[in-house]
Each structure stands twice: as structure tokens, then as C-alpha cells.
Design brief:
Chain A: InterPro entries: AAA+_ATPase (IPR003593), ABC_transporter-like_ATP-bd (IPR003439), ABC_transporter-like_CS (IPR017871), ABC_transpr_LolD-like (IPR015854), MacB-like_ATP-bd (IPR017911), P-loop_NTPase (IPR027417). The complex is a heterodimer of chains A (about 240) and B (about 800). Chain A has a single domain, classed as Rossmann fold (3-Layer(aba) Sandwich). Chain A is of the alpha/beta class. In chain A, strands 6-7-8-3-9-10 form a six-stranded mixed sheet, with helices on both faces. Chain A is about 35% helix and about 30% strand. The longest helix of chain A is centred in the last third of the chain and has 16 residues. Chain B is an alpha+beta fold and about 800 residues long. Chain B folds into three domains: about 350 residues, no CATH class; about 220 residues, no CATH class; about 200 residues, no CATH class. Chain B has 25 helices and 24 strands. In chain B, strands 1, 2, 3, 6, 7, 8, 9, 10, 11, 12 and 13 form an eleven-stranded mixed sheet that branches. Chain B has a six-stranded mixed β-barrel with strand order 16-17-22-19-21-20. In chain B, helix 2 packs antiparallel against helix 21, helix 8 packs parallel to helix 21 and helix 13 packs across helix 24. Chain B is elongated. Classes of the chains: A alpha/beta (about 240), B alpha+beta (about 800). Chains A and B meet through helix 2 and helix 3 of A and helix 1 and helix 9 of B.
Chain lengths: ~240, ~800
């Protein structure tokens, strides 16, 4: 596996939280490599460090020690400003609780990353419309988040995550707040994105959702305990 | 991007109406008050600036040190003019002199003009008033010429053109109108017309042209350039040393004179000199007003900071998300600063409307004439925008820096409540707000108490129930017949006594040179003199401490007796003053030796700012300025009407003008009264704005503690104890503010009270009352929210989380 093909490459990644009296280890030496175009699910019981790992991979948090190469660049030692720059050009996020801005309409929410990237007005409109159409929520463009169903909100959130065409999408329990029908819809969308070439890393509790991934990484007490290839998915792709 | 910020800001403001209303109202009141204060301060600081050569004009003022006692005068003697004109760096020099109130007879009607001045022909060369008619150089060059202001010309003749060349009959003489000028306002020279000084020059006593102690002229010089002030002062020093002091010595007067070049623009706030043309402004009020403006803005800004950080939990998700999709910290800071600037801008628009509504009342309060379109100039607009930006940035900076520090990983987790800003910081800011409010409240109570003390203080005379009729000046036949009206008035049982006096309390007194017996020898002294008649002491209700009052039947009293007050006896070191010798030196009568007939108990001739000064009451029944009648409080209107009827028979030529002694005396406290009103209003505003903020914070606290309240209620807590629980933290903040504010207020107000020789003590109850007031107002504000939270159904409260 050549280095260039790797989107994520971590070595001995550690994260410790220190309070006045207690030191908690959230990640205890994680080595994880994710190739471009992969769909990886991270599973494990509550408190095993899934979210911490995802936050570090998403550059929302920094590791206490260890190395984290993102597209071959060392991220661990970057400043907040440098990470913000790298983030906005390369990453898209999908959260369990959607995290849309209540004061902005669906369209405005989706256009937000493009605004920070400095896109022109016409380009922004074009890309936003494409993203909305792809997620099937263009008819709801002028609604505010509270006026949408959970499934619609998550589709809007995914549209926002992909609008700037990032190399990697990080999803934190994307179906956690949805019923099974809407959950399936969302997983279908993520799967389609992955098939179109986007790398997806997803934290989930749901074995059903994990089935959409190429590979499942199991975390326990801050360490990777097993990594399973999803035979079904690989087989489907081979066919 | 800006568009998205703007949209979010507007939508946020609309969504949180209470919070928006609190912030906008507070800021609008603060900004409106600031605008008014800005107008006042700018106006006060711009006196004399309407004269194009104001920077080059100086007035000559004088100090005379006599017997170790220094007197400072705004007036100089007539020869100062020719002396100054010889100075190398003087382009022009002019003199002004006061007139008495003038009666004007015009077209069968009688008018009174108070603000006429005598001026010489160089006046318009120094002060560049615009002459609408008449030649500036010669308009005042000969006796009995008058130049009117445009306003006065219109009052009497309808137009400038119609006034020219007409004659106006004044109290003593008739004057020909030789010019009309446009008043510039905003000057200590607030004349409505100018009479030629040449009219009174021949009346000067013989030798007066060399008389350096005849202090009745205001002398102004226009310097050749504005850097000549020091050189001019040097020449004044030389004049004093080489000419004036030798003259004083040659007249065997034990005094030293010096002169001061007073820049024109300094006159308005320079309170050092007595006998100025118009009352001075008070620079302390400019500072106080300025401080109040800053306080108000600070309190309103703190509201914004506190409410914005308290509510920050609600904005945390947005911040986190913006960071996730690529915003850096700078962009988030800009966004929140933009929001506060937007809010301030909206507040400013509202403030402009408020100012429009309140400008008439403010004019009344400050005796100014600000027009409501004051803001329609570039300078003001620029200042206003600068203020908006400043407040926006100051108020917005703390929330902006705080909010932008959120880490997305923390705030985007649904199970974790983000922080609501530092509670300690918010508490500190509330304490600061209440400290400021408390200082204002304490100040108001102190000023109010001192005012009440001034008005009710025992002055040593009974100021109530004395009706004072103004006797027209210059009519000697009238004065000679005063006994006629005195007798008529005394026939009315409501009038117990009548006096005809030249001096009354509340007016500046003349200072006279006397010789007083000191260890068997006669020594020179200067003393304040009141010119009174036989009945002055009983009418005023002044008590005798020793000896007797003047007696009509004792003919020697007229030139051979004087009455002094206790302060004079102490000052002269007389243990047994009765019979001590005094020589009064008056130019009219020549020197006359007199003996002390009586000593009156000390009474306050001037306001209680000053201690009772040594005073000599000289008997001069021939020179009356006022008719004083002590009337009974019953049937007062009927008595006044009676006096009016008698007066109109006695003097049909002049309309009767009267006032009451207590009102006249208390007029000396007008500045304090104004200050009290202003202080009262503004302290009301500070507490109002502070309470608005407290209201918002209390709502926030109640909301934040909803679950706790629910659990407590389930466990059996009463509504009362929950209200107490929520209120006591705020009460504590107010109490801390009391502790902080009291010493500061004590220091400031003792400083203010230093201005009064007679003053109240800053007793503990003033501070306790202020504390109680602030606490009550704060608790009333908080308990509304607390009660609302406490009455909530506990199930709802628990479910709310």
C-alpha cells in the first residue's frame, strides 16, 4: 500500500484527558490506515473512544501523542488555524443530531461551507442546488430546520457535508436519531457517495449500518481490538 | 458571507424578543442620554468661539491684596483703557460698563430692559459682531447713542430699517439709534443693546481718569497675534509696578494691585473674579455630565455582554458548526462583533427618536436652546457612527472572544451542555453596574439633602414673607417721596413693617475702605457694606447682639453711627465693640467719623457657600433701591394687590416689579437645583438600565435552574423558599456593590460639599437609604422572574430538561 493512497494514517495515537484528580485515557495507541475510496465503520461500546477518535480524525481535537498523517501531511502538530484550513478543504461532517443552524434555511445551511471557501455567488447557488437535488430535498430549500422531519434534516446535513466535494466524510452515528426507514435512506445516500469515490469513516452502534462499510474497526478501551473485512460488501463490489 | 451573518443576526434578534428589547432599550436610553450630554458639553465648551478673533482677545482682570485679604475682580478702572492702548502688542482695546435695569418708554408703553451695557466706539473693532445697519466705527462715538440687537430693534420698531435714527427714551436719557447688530449668542457679553460709554464719561468724579480704584469698567484688548499673551501679561506687570502701585502708595492706601490677562475663551469657566458680566459656567458639571454619559453607556454595554454570554449556550452549536465547516476564530469574532454593532446601530436610531422627544425638556433643564435638527451635520454624524462602532466593539468583544473559543468537539455533542460564559465575570459586571447606580443614587440623596438644608437653614434673618418692590433707578424725586408710600402701606394691617434699603441679601455687596480703631490708632481695613435705612433690621428680622438699631430721632445716627455684625467685631478684634471709632470714606460725603452703635447677630448675606463675612450696615436712607414690606401670610394675594394699587398711585410712570425675598435668595442655588434634577434623572436611568439587565439575567438563571426548581418542589419546597433561593444571589451582588460604591460616593460627595461653608454631614443613613433603594428595586426586578419559575408545575420543570 503506497503512502499516497492513504487518506488517514495514524501511529500510536493517544488521547488523555486530565482533570484535577483523574487522568482518563480515551485512546491508548491507535494505529489506523484508511485508503482513498474506503468506507470504514468504527464500532464499540459506549466510552470506548469512538467519538474521540472521530474528532481527532476530523481535526476537531488534537491527540496527546502519536502521529496522524492526513493525505500524507502530519496533522498532530498543526495549529488550530492550519487545521481549520485543511478541514474546510477536505472534510465533510455528518452528526447524529444533524447540527443544522436553526436560524438559517436549508439552502443557507448547505451553502455555508462554500461561503467559508470563498466561492462566487453563482457557483455557490449551482453547487448548493446540485447537492440538494442529489439528496432529494430541493423542494424544502426555503424551510428552516425545525420545519423538517428528522430524515429530511439529516439529508440536508449530508448535503452540507458533500457540497464542497471533500475527500473524506466523517459520520458520527448518522442514523442514531432516525427511525429505521429514514436510517436506511441515509445509509443508502452515504453508500452512494462512497461508490462515487468519497472516502467515508462512520462511527456507529448499529450492526446493520456497519454492513454498508468495507471494513469494521472494533474499538475497546481506546484500542483497536479487531478489524473485520465486510465480505458481503466486497463481494458485491467484485460482482 | 456578510449576508449570512446579517441574516442570522436579524433572525436571532427577532427570535429572542425580550432579550433584544432589553438590549436595544438599554443601549438606546444610554446613547440618547449621551447625545444630549454631548450637546450640553459641546455647547459649554464653545463659549466665545463665534468671534473670529477670539484667540486674540484678552480681558484685563485685577487682584487687590489689602490687609492680607485678596480680592479678585473682573472689572478694572477707567484709566486701564488708555494704558492698555499704549501696549505694543495691542491692536485695539475697548471698555464696557454695566447699567442698571432700564425703563424704556415707547409709544405710550413702558418696558424694562435688563441687559444693556455701555460700550465705547472701539467695541466693534474688538468683537466682530455683524452690523446690519450703521457704521461700526462711529456708532458709539458720542454721548446718547445706542446700538440695538436685531431682536430689540424688531421688538420696538418692527424692523432694522425702521429703528435706525429713531430715539429711545431710557430711565435717565434719550438715545438715538445709530446701529443694529446681530447677536452671536454664546458669549459672556449677553447684551441686548449697547449704549455709548461717552454718555457717562462726563459724570465721572473729578480726577477719576487717574483713579485706579474706581473699579467699574470691563477692559478688553485685541492682541496683534495669538502668541502675545505672555508679552501682554508682562506689560500688565510693568504697569502695576511702575504706575498703579506707586499711585496707590501716594494715596496712602495699604494695598497692592496686580493685573491678569484673561483669555476670552477662559472667561466662561473662570470663577476667580467677582462682578463678572454674566454668571460663570461650572466646569465640574461638564466633567460630571461627561462621566455620567460614560457610565450610562458602560452599564448598557454590560447588559449586552452579560446577556450575550449568559445565552451563549444557545449559540454554541452554531459556533461549533461554523468551525466544522471551515470558519476560523477570526471570522467568528467578526460575526459576533458585527451583531453587536448592528444592535447598537438599531439602538442609535431609536436613540435619535428619543432625543427628538426629550430635547424640549432637556432645554428647560439646562437653560439652553438646542434645536432638534442638531444631528444633521457631518461632524455629529461622524461622531455618532464612531460611538456606535465603539460601543458595538466594546460590548461585543467579550461575548465574541468567549463564543469564538468554543471547541466544536465539545459543543456539538448532544449530551453535553456547553458552558454559559464565566458566571464570575457576569457577577463582577453586575456589581460594577450596581456600584455605578449606587454612586448616582447616593449622589442624588446627598444633593437633595444639602439643598433642603440650604433652603431651610437659619440664615440669621427671616427670609419668608418679605415682599420686595424694585424702586426704579435714577428717579431721585421718587426716592425723596418714599415716606409717603411707606405710610400708606403701613395702614394695611397685613403689612407689619416697611424698609427702604439699597442692599438686600442675595446680591453682591460693595466693598469699602474704612479706618477702624485698633489699639487706640486708626487702621485701614476693607469691609463689605450694606446700605440700609432705619427699618431694615426689624423688617429683615435680624437680631441685635449688642447696642441698638438706628433711630430716626437721633440725628447723629445719620453720619455718626454704624452697625456691624458679630463677624466684623471678631475680625476687628473688638471684645466690646460699642462705641469703637470708624471712619467711613465715601467720595460723596467726604470722610466722616462714626461710632459703633450696635452689633447684629451674624446673618447670611450671600449663599451658604460662603461663611458669614464681616459686614458693616451703613445708614443711607437717601439711596434706596428696594422697598421691603413684611407681610402676613394670610390674605397674601389681597396684600400684593393692595401694594400694587398704592404703587400705581405713587409712581404711575413705572410698572411695579416685585419679588419675594426667599425666592430671590434661593435663586442662588439654581445651579445646584439643576444639578439635582439632572442627577436625579440620570441616576434613575442608570438604575433602570441596570435593572433591565438584571431582569434578563434573572430570566436566564431561572431557565437554567428549571430542573433544580422542579426537583426541589417535588421534595416539598415552598414557592417562597424558591423565590428566596433565586433572589438571594442577586441580593448578595447588590450588597457587594454597596460596599464598593459607598467609599467612592463618600469621597466624591464630601468633595462636592467642600464648596459649602454650611453643609450637611454625610451620615450613615444616606448610604443605608441608597442601599435599601437599590436592593428593593433589584429584588422587585428579580423576584418577578423567580416567582414565575417557582410557580411552574414541577412536572413541566423536570420534563423541560
Amino acid at each position: 500500500m503506497s503512502k499516497e493512497e492513504l487518506v488517514i494514517d495514524t501511529q500510536n495515537l493517544q488521547k488523555k484527558y486530565v482533570t484535577d484528580t483523574v487522568e482518563t485515557t480515551a485512546l491508548a495507541g491507535v494505529d489506523l490506515k484508511i485508503k482513498r475510496g474506503e468506507f470504514v465503520a468504527i464500532m464499540g461500546p459506549s466510552g470506548c473512544g469512538k467519538s474521540t477518535l472521530l474528532n481527532i480524525l476530523g481535526m476537531l481535537d488534537s491527540p496527546s501523542s502519536g502521529s496522524f498523517l492526513f493525505l500524507g501531511q502530519e496533522v498532530a502538530s498543526m495549529s488550530e488555524r492550519q487545521r481549520a484550513k485543511l478541514r474546510k478543504h477536505n472534510l465533510g461532517f455528518v452528526f447524529q443530531s444533524f447540527n443544522l443552524i436553526d436560524e438559517l434555511t436549508v439552502e443557507e445551511n448547505i451553502a455555508l461551507p462554500l461561503a467559508y471557501l470563498g466561492f462566487s455567488k453563482s457557483e455557490t447557488e449551482k453547487r448548493t442546488l446540485q447537492a440538494m437535488e442529489r439528496m432529494g430535498i430541493a423542494h424544502r430549500r426555503n424551510h428552516f430546520p425545525q420545519q423538517l422531519s428528522g430524515g429530511q434534516q439529516q439529508r440536508a446535513a449530508i448535503a452540507r457535508a458533500v457540497v464542497a466535494e471533500p475527500a473524506l466524510i466523517l459520520a458520527d452515528e448518522p442514523t442514531g436519531n432516525l427511525d429505521s426507514v429514514h436510517g436506511r435512506e441515509v445509509m443508502q445516500l452515504l453508500s452512494e457517495l462512497n461508490e462515487a469515490g468519497t472516502t467515508v469513516v462512520m462511527v456507529t452502534h448499529s450492526p446493520t449500518d456497519a454492513e454498508y462499510a468495507h471494513r469494521v474497526v472494533n474499538l475497546f478501551d481506546g484500542q483497536i481490538v479487531t478489524e473485520n473485512l465486510n465480505i458481503k460488501r466486497h463481494a458485491a463490489e467484485l460482482l | 458571507m456578510l449576508q449570512s451573518y446579517f441574516k442570522i443576526a436579524i433572525r436571532n434578534l427577532l427570535r429572542n424578543k425580550v432579550y433584544t428589547a432589553i438590549n436595544i432599550t438599554g443601549l438606546a436610553i444610554g446613547v440618547a442620554a449621551c447625545m444630549l450630554i454631548f450637546l450640553y458639553v459641546k455647547d459649554e465648551l464653545s463659549y466665545e468661539s463665534n468671534f473670529s478673533k477670539a484667540d486674540r482677545i484678552v480681558r484685563v482682570a485685577g487682584n487687590i491684596v489689602f490687609d492680607g485679604h485678596k480680592d479678585a475682580f473682573a472689572v478694572t478702572a477707567p484709566p486701564m483703557l488708555s494704558a492698555v492702548r499704549e501696549f505694543a502688542n495691542v491692536a485695539h482695546a475697548t471698555q464696557l460698563a454695566n447699567t442698571d435695569k432700564q425703563t424704556i418708554w415707547h409709544k405710550g408703553q413702558v418696558f424694562t430692559e435688563e441687559n444693556l451695557l455701555f460700550a465705547d466706539s472701539a467695541f466693534f473693532s474688538v468683537f466682530d459682531y455683524e452690523l446690519l445697519a450703521g457704521p461700526p466705527a462711529t456708532a458709539l462715538d458720542a454721548p446718547r447713542k445706542i446700538v440695538l440687537t436685531e431682536k430689540l430693534a424688531q421688538k420696538y420698531f418692527g424692523s432694522v430699517e425702521a429703528a435706525m435714527g429713531q430715539t429711545l427714551k431710557l430711565s435717565r436719557d434719550s438715545y438715538v439709534i445709530t446701529g443694529v447688530y446681530r447677536d452671536k449668542g454664546h458669549s459672556h457679553i449677553a447684551a441686548s443693546g449697547l449704549l455709548s460709554l461717552a454718555t457717562i464719561e462726563p459724570n465721572l468724579p473729578e480726577g477719576a481718569q487717574d483713579q485706579w480704584f474706581n473699579l467699574n469698567r470691563y477692559t478688553y484688548a485685541l492682541l496683534t497675534s495669538n502668541n502675545q499673551l505672555a508679552a501682554f501679561q508682562d506689560q500688565l506687570n510693568v504697569l502695576a509696578a511702575n504706575k498703579v502701585n506707586p499711585w496707590i502708595k501716594s494715596n496712602k492706601i495699604n494695598a497692592v494691585a496686580s493685573f491678569i490677562a484673561q483669555p476670552l475663551k477662559d472667561i466662561h469657566f473662570d470663577t476667580r473674579f467677582e462682578h463678572d458680566l454674566t454668571p460663570q459656567g461650572n466646569i465640574s458639571y461638564v466633567y460630571i455630565f461627561g462621566a455620567v454619559a460614560v457610565f450610562l453607556l458602560l452599564i448598557a454595554s454590560i447588559n449586552y455582554m452579560n446577556l450575550a454570554t449568559a445565552r451563549s449556550a444557545k449559540r454554541a452549536k452554531e459556533v461549533g458548526l461554523r468551525k466544522v465547516v471551515g470558519a476560523d476564530r477570526g471570522q467568528i469574532i467578526c460575526q459576533f462583533l458585527g451583531e453587536s454593532v448592528l444592535l447598537t446601530f438599531i439602538a442609535m436610531m431609536l436613540a435619535l427618536a428619543l432625543v427628538q422627544i426629550f430635547i424640549p425638556s432637556f432645554n428647560l433643564l439646562t437653560d439652553k436652546q438646542f434645536s432638534s435638527d442638531f444631528f444633521l451635520n457631518r461632524e455629529f454624524m461622524a461622531a455618532l457612527l464612531a460611538i456606535v462602532l465603539l460601543i458595538g466593539v466594546v460590548a461585543g468583544s467579550y461575548p465574541a472572544f468567549f463564543l469564538s473559543s468554543f471547541k466544536p468537539a465539545d459543543v456539538l455533542k448532544s449530551d453535553k451542555q456547553p458552558r454559559s460564559g464565566s458566571a464570575t465575570m457576569r457577577k463582577a459586571l453586575v456589581i460594577l453596574q450596581f456600584s455605578i447606580s449606587l454612586i448616582m443614587i447616593i449622589g442624588t440623596i446627598v444633593v437633595f439633602t444639602q439643598m433642603r438644608f440650604l433652603k431651610n437653614a437659619d440664615l440669621g434673618f427671616a427670609k419668608e414673607q418679605i415682599m420686595v418692590v424694585d424702586i426704579p433707578v435714577g428717579d431721585t424725586t421718587l426716592i425723596n417721596r418714599l415716606s409717603v408710600i411707606n405710610q400708606k402701606l403701613l395702614q394695611n394691617p397685613s403689612i407689619s413693617n416697611v424698609s427702604n434699603s439699597y442692599s438686600i441679601p442675595g446680591q453682591p455687596l460693595s466693598r469699602a475702605l474704612i479706618l477702624a480703631e485698633q489699639n487706640g490708632k486708626m487702621e485701614e481695613k476693607t469691609i463689605d457694606v450694606m446700605f440700609v435705612d432705619y427699618d431694615f433690621i426689624p423688617v429683615m428680622g435680624i437680631e441685635m447682639a449688642a447696642g441698638r438699631n438706628y433711630n430716626r430721632n437721633m440725628h447723629t445716627d445719620l453720619n455718626g453711627g454704624v452697625i456691624i455684625n458679630e463677624a466684623a467685631a471678631r475680625w476687628l478684634g473688638w471684645k466690646d465693640p460699642i462705641g469703637k471709632k470708624v471712619v467711613l470714606s465715601t467720595s460723596a460725603l467726604g470722610d466722616s467719623q462714626a461710632k459703633v452703635l450696635g452689633v447684629v447677630k451674624d446673618f447670611n448675606v450671600s449663599s451658604l457657600h460662603a461663611e458669614v463675612q464681616p459686614v458693616l450696615l451703613q445708614l443711607t436712607p437717601q439711596s434706596a433701591g428696594y422697598l421691603l414690606a413684611r407681610i402676613s401670610p394670610e390674605n397674601q394675594p389681597a396684600t400684593i394687590q393692595f401694594v400694587e394699587e398704592q404703587w400705581s398711585q405713587f409712581d404711575p410712570k413705572h410698572p411695579m416689579e416685585y419679588f419675594f425675598m426667599d425666592e430671590f435668595f434661593d435663586r442662588q442655588y439654581r445651579a445646584e437645583e439643576k444639578m439635582l434634577t439632572v442627577f436625579g434623572y440620570f441616576s434613575g436611568l442608570t438604575i433602570l438600565i441596570a435593572c433591565l439587565g438584571l431582569f434578563g439575567l434573572a430570566a436566564f438563571t431561572a431557565e437554567q435552574r428549571t430542573k433544580e426548581i422542579g426537583i426541589r418542589k417535588v421534595l416539598g419546597s415552598s414557592t417562597g423558599s424558591i423565590v428566596l433561593l433565586l433572589s438571594k444571589d442577586f441580593a448578595l451582588l447588590v450588597l457587594v456593590a454597596v460596599v464598593l460604591a459607598s467609599p467612592i460616593a463618600w469621597y466624591g460627595m464630601s468633595h462636592w460639599l467642600q464648596d459649602y461653608a454650611y453643609r450637611i454631614n454625610l451620615s450613615w443613613w444616606i448610604f443605608a437609604l441608597a442601599a435599601l433603594l437599590a436592593l428593593l428595586i433589584a429584588m422587585a426586578t428579580v423576584s418577578f422572574q423567580a416567582l414565575k419559575a417557582a410557580m411552574l408545575d414541577p412536572v413541566k420543570a423536570i420534563r423541560a430538561q
